[in-house]
Design goal:
The protein is an alpha/beta fold and about 300 residues long. The protein contains 10 helices and 12 strands. The chain has helices at about 30-45, 60-70, 90-95, 125-140, 160-170, 190-200, 215-225, 245-250, 265-275, 295-300, and strands at about 20-25, 50-55, 75-80, 100-105, 120, 145-150, 175-185, 210, 235-240, 255-260, 285, 290-295. Strands 2-1-3-4-5-11 form a 6-stranded parallel sheet, sandwiched between helices. Strands 7-6-8-9-10-12 form a 6-stranded mixed sheet, with helices on both faces. Strand 8, helix 7 (about 215-225) and strand 9 form a beta-alpha-beta unit. Helix 1 (about 30-45) packs across helix 9, helix 2 (about 60-70) packs parallel to helix 3 and helix 6 packs across helix 7 (about 215-225). The model is unreliable at about 1-15 (pLDDT under 50). Beta-D-galactofuranose binds next to helix 1 and strand 9. The site of beta-D-galactofuranose has 15 residues, from helix 1 and strand 9. GO terms for molecular function: carbohydrate binding. Belongs to the bacterial solute-binding protein 2 family. This is ABC transporter substrate-binding protein.
């Protein structure tokens, strides 16, 4: 059945329990908090011994964590790469140690796809396209220029690159859409507020904000209100994630549209890990199910949201 892909699982928890080393990006957003909870709870339910580390959004901390999991001879490594590039060396070390790797949430740009068994996560280009399509529909009867500012996610991360690409692909169909400013807010509320304040100072006419996640959108709302403008009316806002606080702002009319990005990857991750440790084949790509929300849909969905 090909290489015996598991380590010897000798790092605690008895020899029959699968040991997983997980390197998490950080705790930068409501999405990340929900994702961490999903991974930790699912490991418990699956009887998997989880070793978990928070990299505070630093790639070198993730590389250190992966190296320590290799030293500990875990059975499987899973991680959400904070940025797309710079992983080949450490992933080769895991491969040489015969420890399978599962990409969770974000992707890497390694050419050698044998370095990981599968990539479980959203299609971020699709998410960007959905955001762009809402805007095209919203302004279909208008001839005027639409001035857009964009709060990008973490520089170099797959969601930032792909949400930007998907969005601009759709809006480039009509020259009335102009992205007049685009800058990273690092997926956090604080940075989103700071960058939006700068956008407001240097751009007298902003019609739309496209924020790559709810948290930056929520920070931007504070900046917009601080400038005496009405979010959702004076400046239309589209965000991605659909975490609780974003959905509340959507229901309250401060955000106009949210493209969902599901953080609940835990159950699928644990199923994939069990298969991979047994040396079973798994699909190279598992795309998560997700939808979109208008203000009305948010009001209906809010009471039953898990996060
Ligand atoms: C997307 C995930 C992103 C979220 C942000 O899957 O990597 O990182 O959209 C989070 O909220 O910080």
């Amino acid at each position: 059945d090909g290489d015996s892909s598991a380590g010897n699982g000798s790092s605690g928890g008895g020899d029959d329990k699968i040991v997983m080393g997980f390197s998490q990006v950080g705790a930068e957003s409501g999405w990340r908090t929900a994702n961490t909870k999903s991974v930790q709870e699912s490991a418990k339910e699956a009887g998997i011994d989880l070793k978990f580390s928070d990299a505070q959004q630093k790639q070198e901390n993730q590389i250190k964590a992966i190296r320590s999991y290799i030293q500990q001879k875990v059975d499987v490594i899973a991680f959400s790469p904070v940025v797309e590039s710079g992983w080949d060396t450490v992933l080769k070390e895991a491969q040489n140690a015969k420890i399978p790797v599962i990409l969770t949430d974000r992707a890497v740009d390694s050419k050698d796809t044998s370095l990981y068994k599968t990539f479980l996560g959203s299609d971020f280009v699709e998410e960007g396209k959905k955001a762009g399509q809402w805007l095209v529909d919203e302004y279909k009867d208008s001839k005027d220029t639409v001035n857009i500012v964009e709060l990008q996610g973490t520089t170099g991360s797959a969601p930032a690159n792909d949400r930007k690409a998907g969005f601009s692909e759709i809006i480039s169909a009509d020259p009335k859409f102009k992205v007049i400013a685009s800058q990273s807010g690092d997926f956090t509320r604080a940075k989103g507020k700071e960058v939006m304040e700068a956008f407001l100072k240097s751009n007298p006419k902003i019609d739309v904000l496209y924020a790559h996640n709810d948290d930056m959108g929520l920070g931007a709302i504070e900046a917009i209100e601080g400038a005496g403008k009405v979010p959702g009316k004076d400046i239309k806002i589209i965000t991605v994630d659909a975490v609780h606080d974003g959905m509340q702002a959507l229901a309250d009319g401060k955000i106009n549209y949210i493209v969902e990005c599901s953080p609940l990857l835990g159950p699928q991750l644990m199923d994939l890990a069990k298969k991979v440790v047994k040396g079973e084949q798994v699909p190279p790509r598992v795309v998560t199910e997700e939808t979109t929300f208008t203000q009305e849909q948010a009001k209906e969905a809010l009471p039953n949201r898990k996060y």
